[in-house]
Structures are given as C-alpha cells and as structure tokens.
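User: I'm curious whether this sequence folds into something compact or stays loose and floppy. Could you predict its structure so I can see for myself?
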Amino acid sequence: MLSPLERIILIAAILGSAGFFLNEIRVRVRIIKRGGKDEKRWEDPAGRIVHTVVRVLSQACATGERPVVGVMHAFIFWGFVFFAVATINHVIGAFSPGFSILGKGLLHDLWFLAVDWIGVFTLVGTVYMAVRRYVVRPEGIKKPMPISRSPQSAVVLSLISGLMITYFLHQGSEILLSGASAARWMPVSRFTAGWLSGIGHDPLHLWNRFFWWSHILMVLGFLFFIPHSKHLHLVAGPVNLFFRSRKNPGRLEKIDLEATEQFGVTDATDYSWKTLLDAFSCVECGRCQDRCPAWLSGKALSPKVVMMSLRKHLLNERGNLLSGRQTAEPVMDGWLTPDEIWACTTCGACMDVCPVLNEHIPAIVGLRQGKVMMESRFPQELNLAFRGLETNGNPWNMGAAGRADWAEGADVKTLADNPEPEYLWFVGCAGAFDDQARRSSRAFAKILNAAGVNYAVLGMDESCCGDPARRSGNEYVFQMLAQANIEAFRSAGVKKILTACPHCFNMIKTEYPQFGGGFEVIHHADLIAGLIREGRLRLRTDETGPTAYHDSCYLGRYHGMYDAPREVLRLLSGGNFTELDRHHDNSFCCGGGGARMFMEEHGRRINHMRIEEAAGACVETLGVACPFCLTMLQDAAKEKEMEGIRVRDLAELVAERMEAG
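Assistant: Here's the prediction. I'll summarize afterward.
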C-alpha cells in the first residue's frame, strides 16, 4: 500500500500522462477530419466490429506473410492484453490493498498463471525482434530508413522488456513479503522470488516499492511515447480495420467532374479522411515494400514510405491543419517525388499484405490525378497514350478505323452478323492492336467458333476500357471512354460481356457500375475452362514439358480467379504442371499495370525478374491470361535470350491443341 504522498504522486502522474495522451489523440483526430472527401464506411457495423476484433485478437493480421515474426509479435500483443489487467490490479491495489478485479477465486489464479507464462513469451518476442532489427537487419529494415534514424523501436523494445522484468521482480518480492504459498500458481514469479531470497526483509521492502514504481512509470511512459511514434497503430490500427473498404480492391472512386474544381490530390486535405487515417495507422512493418515489384526492382517507390511521408507531412503541417488554414506546401515537392508515384504498377500486392489494410493505390493514383489534371505534369511517354486515347480510343494511338483489322480471315461475328448474341466480346485495345495479343484474339475466336458460342464483337464501335487513363490519373479521358462504351453496350442490348483482358474485366465489372453500367462480365479463362468441362472442345492432352501459369494481378489478386487457368493448363500439359516460386496471391507483377505498359522503365526491369523466375523453375511453357502479361513476358524472354521458354496466352495453347486434334 502506498503512502499518502505516493498516492498523490501516482494520481498526478496518471492524470498527466492520460491527459497528454488523450490530447495528442484528439489532435490527430482533428487532422484526420481535415480530409476533404467524405467516405461512408459505416454499413454493417456489427460485421465490421466482429472482423476487427477477430483480426486483432488472433493477430492474423501479423502472422500471414512472416509467420515467425508474426508469432513473436503476437506474443508481445497478447502480453499487453494480459498485463493490462495485471497493471490495473496494481494501480487499484495501491489504494485498496488486496483488491483484484478478477476476485480471489479460480479465474484470478488462472489469469495470473497465464500472465506469468505470457510474460516469458513476451520477453522472448522482444529479444527476437531486437536481434532481427539490430543484428540480422533484413533489407526492408535497413532501407529506406536507416537504423540510426529510427530509435523508436529501441525505445519500445526496452520499455516492453522493462515492463516484464519489473513485473516479475515485483511479484517475486511480493511473494517473499507475503508468503510463498500465496503464489503456488505463479511458477515464473516464484523463480524470481528464489533469486531475491537472499535480500534482507527491510531492503526487500524498498526493492519491492522500486520495482512497483518502475513498472507503473514505464506504463505511463508508453502514453507519452505512443502518439509520437509508429506505435500509434496500437490505437489507430483497429480503427482502420473497422473502416476498411468492403469494395473490390480493383475499384477506384469516381470524381464528379462537374461538381468539383479540384481533381485528384495536391494538398493533403484533398485526400479523404480514410487516407489520412491510413497514414497514422501505418505499422512501418515493410510487408508492402517486401512485395512491391517497383521496390524489389530497385525503383524509388516504397508503399511504406508513401504512408510515412504523408504522416510526417501532416504532423509538419499540424498548425495549419488545426487552425483550418491551407497547408504551406503540397504533399509532393519535398515529401514524395515523381519517380515514386509513377513507378507504381497498381498490382495491389501492398494492399493485400498490409496488416492494418491501408489503401496505398488510391493514395498514389490520387497524386497522379493531381499532377495530370491540375498541373499537366506527367512522364513524357504518356503524351502519346493520352493523345491516342482521346482521339483514337486506344493508348497505342493507332487509327480507330483499324480496330477490327485483327479479325480478317478469322470468321469473327460482328453485331451486324449476329444482332442478338449471348455474349458481347469486348476485345480490348491490346487484343485489337498489339501484334502478340492479336494472335491470341484470333485463337480465342477459333475456340468460340469451334464450341458454337453465341457471340459478337463491337468492331469499330469499341473504345479502350479506360484502364490506362484512370490508373495514370487522367480521369477525364477515362470517363469519356467509359461512357462511350456503356452506351455502345446498351445499344447492343447485351447483358453478358466477355473479355480476354483482366484490365478490361476489372474496369467493366468493378468501375463501370459507377456510371450506370451494370453488366455480367466473364473472363475468357473461365469460359474456356467451362467449355472444356462441358465437352464442347475436343483437345489433345499429350504430356508436355514443364508448364506453369503466371497469375495476372488484376485477375488473381483483385478478383480471386486462380483455379480456371490452372485447370486448363493441367489438362493441356498432361499433368506436367508446376508452380512458380511466387504464385496465387503472392504472384509477381509483369510490370505492365498502372499504365506502366506505356512508360519507359529504368534500371532492373520487372518483367525480366519474372521471366528469370520462370527460368529458375525450368519451365518450358509459361501460360498467361492477360495481353499485358503476354507482351511483357514475351519481350522479357526475347531480351534475356531465353528461347527455351514459350510464353503463350491460354487461348493460343488451347487453339494449338485443337489444331493438333
């Protein structure tokens, strides 16, 4: 029991630290509320709460990508949860000796038995994290923030270790002072009691008080430290999980071009409140960075740094933001560079692995929109793509009159030939203009005709789906293209749209509904697999050399379509199917998404990295289900002189077997 003076000091310390903590949280909430765009994320609050509680308590958010690190993090987290009760007991016990919020029965004994052992696991977790960060030092930790510039982790690991040690020492001294039999259910604390047993009774009283105060002051120290560090995610992370997007990750939000004068993001307040919350929720764990193809290929972009830089910018501008003034400088120009925002392939890997479900891609595309639509500043190579999209309806800037040339001699049915098709085949710009993808289009037409599929194409009435425009920030051109296509679809009176391009698939299925274009969209991989199952295609299935499948980011990670292409390739290869090292949701981007298909790439090329991975797996045939992936990986195989790897679209491989049969 504390003396009256100690009680006064304790009350003052609790009120002071709690007041400081709550004020700093209030400041950050006010900053987040300066976000200019309103986002409604309150639907199904009960479901959101359940998801958040399960994800946080299970620590599934931390264990997925790095199981060992995740388990160690879980030890530390669970230590916090269990020790919270013990600490509350300590504080209340200072005013009411013998008090226990769990009573004095079995629950009390079991809880403190768990605390005893979890404290050990927590110490193991902190030692592991310290060794990993300061001895092993993986690349994701060393770069881009050197250890010497980030003492936060050292402070936190020291505080956590100190909390565990002082707890055990206090419990050990308490056992000696009150009688060892009182703690028969606390084996670790009894061990520390044995270690302290040589200390005399009076000195032990002083040490007991010292350990108690040390533990409490460390707890209160956390309240001062957390708001100013990445460990704010302890508070912001669960809130961010609650407000997670429940929409398809491949969807970007519509800009009302007629109702706003600000397009995209220039000032931090142009972001939605959710993006600002993302910045404060960032754990700085680097999982996004570890999966980012731009970062792994040596580009300037790190999704982690995007969030960290935004957070630093917000805190640097806190005076202006809190007073309602305009920020002194834009988000970029000192905080982020053009090289960073234009390196993104929008593959979605960062968002897929983020433990607090941050939404990096909308944040990056918002900056692109600001540069393109407000400042007309973008990579020079995009001039040709933008001009082509606006005047000819395709990013290659090929004459619109030639859009149907690919179909010559392929017996392709147009709406004039078949005015009431079951499927409207949206060929896409790559399928119509890119030489390699055109071969795939002709192969797919052969499959449709052989299977007796009732289809038709728009021909010259088709325009680009708008993916390159929207992902590169040119929302105006995207909306022009989307509305033209939706009108063409309606005029054709179709309900089902078929496409061989995951980018077209994502746009029409996920983003066209924003403009009133709700259609059923089928990817050619699904259709082909279904035709084979139904026996509408007769194929040879002789065993081939090792065959693998490269997952398209927009088909796999964004829409969960992994099985159909593999089903077809397993059949075609006679079972000689293998997986690349990175596959399914861990697949590695080809480098062509996010309008990167139409920009120059400097340094190590992403598509080279992917084709080298295929070579390492001794693959002879690499199947793809995306025209961008086809072009990027075929080009990589040629440039790396890997003639032994045959990169083919799924439709080409099936059509070849039809010819052989």
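Summary: The chain has four domains: 4-32+64-228, 268-375, 382-465+474-501, 531-660. Residues 2 and 8 are 10 Å apart (CA to CA).
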